[in-house]
Design a protein that fits this description.
149 residues; mainly beta; 2 domains; eight-stranded antiparallel barrel; three-stranded antiparallel β-sheet; 10% helix
């Protein structure tokens, strides 16, 4: 079904012996009899229909002219990373108005939650505000060694 969308630079690959869809060589999704759902960069997207839909959302995000890194929160929300000078903006795939700006000096900003900070660790990175926290799986989003370790 995803291949029929004719998204640019989406191809079939075989990572770990499973047929998969690869977009811009950066993310991939696969589903099968043994894995009821989809996976991107080893991050579980859920099972069944919801997992497949999240996987397709990742492919749609990757269909942009410029490939984007994709991060998933511990609650399952999907964010695309848009680099900016001195940092990056994480944009919620389900709600594009939900943006988190992070900077190389470990600061964070959100329209609702206000000013905060972020730090990375071996499991991903955490964005901390006065009232809430967002935990993201994946590699360090910026070259900012002073923001964790």
């Amino acid at each position: 079904m995803a291949l029929s969308l004719n998204l640019p630079q989406v191809t079939v690959a075989h990572p770990w012996g499973h047929e998969a869809l690869k977009a811009h060589g950066r993310i991939w999704c696969y589903g099968g009899l043994m894995a009821d759902g989809a996976v991107a960069k080893g991050v579980g997207l859920g099972t069944g229909r919801d997992g497949l839909i999240r996987g397709l959302v990742l492919l749609l995000l990757a269909g942009n002219a410029q490939a984007q890194d994709v991060y998933i929160t511990d609650t399952g929300a999907t964010y695309a990373l848009d680099p900016i000078e001195g940092g990056a903006i994480l944009v919620n795939a389900d709600d594009p108005a939900d943006e988190v700006t992070i900077t190389q000096d470990c600061r964070a900003d959100h329209a609702v939650h206000g000013d905060g900070s972020w730090a990375w660790d071996s499991d991903g990175f955490l964005v901390m505000f006065a009232e809430t926290e967002l935990r993201f799986d994946g590699a360090m989003p910026l070259s900012a060694p002073g923001c964790g370790g």
